Automatic annotation (TrEMBL):
<dbReference type="GO" id="GO:0016477">
    <property type="term" value="P:cell migration"/>
</dbReference>
<dbReference type="InterPro" id="IPR039808">
    <property type="entry name" value="Cadherin"/>
</dbReference>
<dbReference type="InterPro" id="IPR027397">
    <property type="entry name" value="Catenin-bd_sf"/>
</dbReference>
<keyword id="KW-0677">Repeat</keyword>
<dbReference type="GO" id="GO:0016339">
    <property type="term" value="P:calcium-dependent cell-cell adhesion via plasma membrane cell adhesion molecules"/>
</dbReference>
<dbReference type="Pfam" id="PF01049">
    <property type="entry name" value="CADH_Y-type_LIR"/>
</dbReference>
<keyword id="KW-0472">Membrane</keyword>
<feature type="domain" description="Cadherin">
    <location>
        <begin position="194"/>
        <end position="308"/>
    </location>
</feature>
<dbReference type="InterPro" id="IPR000233">
    <property type="entry name" value="Cadherin_Y-type_LIR"/>
</dbReference>
<protein>
    <recommendedName>
        <fullName>Cadherin-12</fullName>
    </recommendedName>
</protein>
<keyword id="KW-0812">Transmembrane</keyword>
<keyword id="KW-0325">Glycoprotein</keyword>
<feature type="domain" description="Cadherin">
    <location>
        <begin position="4"/>
        <end position="84"/>
    </location>
</feature>
<comment type="function">
    <text>Cadherins are calcium-dependent cell adhesion proteins. They preferentially interact with themselves in a homophilic manner in connecting cells; cadherins may thus contribute to the sorting of heterogeneous cell types.</text>
</comment>
<dbReference type="Pfam" id="PF00028">
    <property type="entry name" value="Cadherin"/>
</dbReference>
<keyword id="KW-0165">Cleavage on pair of basic residues</keyword>
<keyword id="KW-0732">Signal</keyword>
Length: 718
């Protein structure tokens, strides 16, 4: 209610209201000033309103007092119940937790004014879920109320929580929510086999590594707490089997580790242990977390293929063994109860298998062809055995046949057949070490011996020193060798082996003589290098050879030209030959006649030196002039003629008709005696010229000339 002191109650004052909610929530009586609420108020929606009021004159509309402001506060009442804004709740707690283990905290919200009365004072309680859980009335914390709650007994719990205001007093408003609590698993249960003995039946034909059965231990735990590990307890039969865990089913899978044989053993018994992988130390006191069961396996008899007595058969045979010779046998048996007969045959794969045959009943292996170790040293093939009662059941075995060697090849030198020796080699020097190779398969301890052949053992050039370790040395026996005398030596070496029968071969080694330095390093082994001077360069050697070739060409040309000119000067008739004789028409007085012939030319040495042209032949311009010693003045003419005669005798280029040279001296003391017919006792026709034939080849033409025809009468010489 509003009232102004100026209001006398006569209706001259009017009250107005403005501000928050004026006209919509609140209204004022203009005459009395009473304020009324025109609708319901909600504190939770708006807790207070700010309004302004003023008194004005009715007539003048002017304010009688200043505008005044006031607040209307809405007083709370308990009209809102507590609410769980986060519900419903989900929580979990490990099983076997102790009493009072924390589970979850819940919270309820009341919209009423917490500062006014007990309208917003909330108290929590459990309406459903007892006696397993409890809740703190003030904080809303939920805890376990019973010990050792077992997940395996009950896993899920639904708890109903109530929140009530007014402190839980009668008349208070309440709200509820649900809490779903799950007990999580812990490893509090060991695995247990549902039975103590497991019986399995396994065929003896089961393959190694295959699964032959499954067993399972039960663990009520969950997840990793239920993981089980299986192990075979060492004992009878356990070494033939193995066990693993199937991760998806947690079963123990029994696998075969070794082959089974019904005829050998029909049953196996062993124990299997199941244990947890992940243990919880809080529950060790419960007992061991493992269990043991017995497994009995009965082996079922199956119709099996024959079994060979050996996994591999190895045999030996000498090469060149006659066809049909038995070299060994294989054996296979049917171990089944029926014990069927066995048949053998070779597993043909290639042509190599045709070298052998097998007896189908006895299993003996024999040669079918001649064997050669040098072609094939080992044969490897398979033999199949099958049961007569069931030919489809077969087994296979490998057979290895080694061909033994027969000594049929002689040993040979395994190093190159050519070596070298230095010219300056000393006696006893080893120039080459040789070894031997044998195409035969050398047995253990075989030795080779080396020696010279019989025809070479007496030669003083080289020898063979056998070191008796399958090697030998070629040694020198001379002090130095000469390439000029002999460049190559051929040394026959005889090599023998120690097998039976003894085989030997003669191997010829070629030894080349080479020029070496003082250290034995080979400098040259070429033949042409013998004649080349040491120290000349290649260019100098080529120049020398070129000069030699040019000189040879000049000599050849010169000789050819000389022969051609000599042919031109030879006369083909007797008349031409006699024309070379100088004829005189007068008869002189012999040596004392100086008028018919100028003898001064014979006495004057200077004239002799200048006059070098012979009168009986055409001068040859290519003929090399011979150096003649000068004749001293007043020397005897006889000495001069003898000198000229000797000079012509030793001249290889002089033609055979040099005998026609004119001599100024004749008479006693001359080899030809007197050529004049003055002192002749007989006529010219009666003279005998046979003595000219005794003068040698140089006078042959002259002898033939005077001895041919009797009708020939030469001019008289004066």
């Amino acid at each position: 209610k509003l009232h102004s002191d100026l209001d006398k109650g006569v209706g001259t004052v009017k009250y107005t209201l403005s501000g928050d909610g004026a006209g919509t929530v609140f209204t004022i009586d203009e005459t009395t000033g009473d304020i009324h609420a025109i609708r319901s108020l909600d504190r939770e929606e708006k807790p207070f309103y700010t309004l302004r009021a003023q008194a004005v004159d009715v007539d003048t509309k002017k304010p009688l007092e200043p505008e005044s402001e006031f607040i209307i506060k809405v007083q709370d009442i308990n009209d809102n119940e507590p609410k769980f804004l986060d519900g419903p709740y989900v929580a979990s707690v490990p099983e076997m937790s102790p009493v009072g283990a924390y589970v979850l905290q819940v919270k309820a919200t009341d919209a009423d004014d917490p500062t006014y009365g007990n309208s917003a004072r909330v108290v929590y309680s459990i309406l459903q879920g007892q006696p397993y859980f409890s809740i703190d009335p003030k904080t809303g914390v939920i805890r376990t109320a019973l010990p050792n709650m077992d997940r395996e007994v009950k896993e899920q719990y639904q708890v109903l929580i109530q929140a009530k205001d007014m402190g839980g007093q009668l008349g208070g408003l309440a709200g509820t929510t649900t809490v779903n609590i799950t007990l999580t698993d812990v490893n509090d249960n060991p695995p247990r086999f549902p039975k103590s003995i497991f019986h399995l039946k396994v065929p003896e034909s089961s393959h190694v590594g295959s699964a032959v059965g499954r067993i399972r231990a039960v663990d009520p735990d969950f997840g990793k707490n239920a993981e089980i590990e299986y192990n075979i307890v060492p004992g009878d039969g356990g070494n033939l089997f193995d066990i693993t865990t199937d991760e998806s089913t947690q079963e123990g899978v029994i696998k075969l580790k070794k082959p089974l044989d019904f005829e050998t053993k029909k049953a196996y018994t062993f124990k299997v242990e199941a244990s947890n992988l992940h243990l919880d130390h809080r529950f060790h006191s419960v007992g061991p977390f493992k269990d043991t069961a017995t497994v009995k396996i009965n082996v079922l008899d199956m119709d099996e293929p024959p079994v060979f007595s050996k996994p591999v058969y190895t045999m030996e045979v000498y090469e060149d063994t006659p066809v049909g010779t038995i070299i060994g046998a294989v054996t296979a048996q049917d171990l089944d109860a029926g014990s069927s007969s066995v048949r053998y045959f070779i597993d043909w794969k290639n042509d190599v298998d045709s070298y052998f045959t097998i007896d189908a009943t006895e299993g003996t292996i024999a040669t079918n062809e001649l064997l050669d170790r040098e072609s094939t040293a080992q044969y490897n093939f398979s033999i199949i055995a099958s049961k007569v009662s069931n030919p489809l059941l077969t087994s296979k075995v490998n057979v290895i046949i080694n061909v033994l060697d027969v000594n049929e090849f002689p040993p040979e030198i395994s190093v190159p057949y050519e070596t070298s020796v230095c010219e300056n080699a000393k006696p006893g020097q080893v120039i080459q070490t040789v070894t031997a190779a044998d195409k035969d398969l050398s047995p253990t301890g075989q030795r080779f011996s080396f020696r010279l052949s019989a025809e070479a053992s007496n030669k003083p050039n080289f020898t063979v020193h056998d070191y008796r370790n399958n090697t030998a040395g070629i040694e020198t026996r001379r002090n130095g060798y000469s390439r000029r005398q002999q460049e190559l030596y051929f040394l026959p070496v005889v090599i023998e082996d120690s097998s039976y029968p003894v085989q030997s071969s003669t191997n010829t080694m070629t030894i080349r003589v080479c020029r070496c330095d003082s250290d034995g390093t080979i400098l040259s082994c070429n033949v042409e290098a013998i004649f080349l001077p040491v120290g000349l360069s290649t260019g100098a050697l080529i120049a020398i050879l070129l000069c030699i070739v040019i000189l040879l060409v000049i000599v050849v040309l010169y000789v050819a030209l000389r022969r051609q000119k000599k042919k031109n000067t030879l006369m083909t008739s007797k008349e031409d030959i006699r024309d070379n004789v100088i004829h005189y028409d007068d008869e002189g007085g012999g040596e004392e006649d100086t008028q018919a012939f100028d003898i001064g030319a014979l006495r004057n040495p200077k004239v002799i030196e200048d006059n070098k042209i012979r009168r009986d032949i055409k001068p040859d311009t290519l003929h090399f002039a011979r150096q003649r010693p000068p004749v001293e003045d007043n020397t005897d003419i006889r000495d001069f003629i003898n000198q000229r005669l000797q000079e012509n005798d030793v001249d290889p280029t002089a033609p055979p008709y040099d005998s026609l040279a004119t001599y100024a001296y004749e008479g006693n003391g001359s080899v030809a005696e007197s050529l004049s017919s003055i002192d002749s006792l007989t006529t010219e026709a009666d003279q005998d010229y046979d003595y000219l034939s005794d003068w040698g080849p140089r006078f042959k033409i002259l002898a033939d000339m005077f001895g041919e025809e009797e009708s020939y009468n030469p001019d008289k010489v004066t």
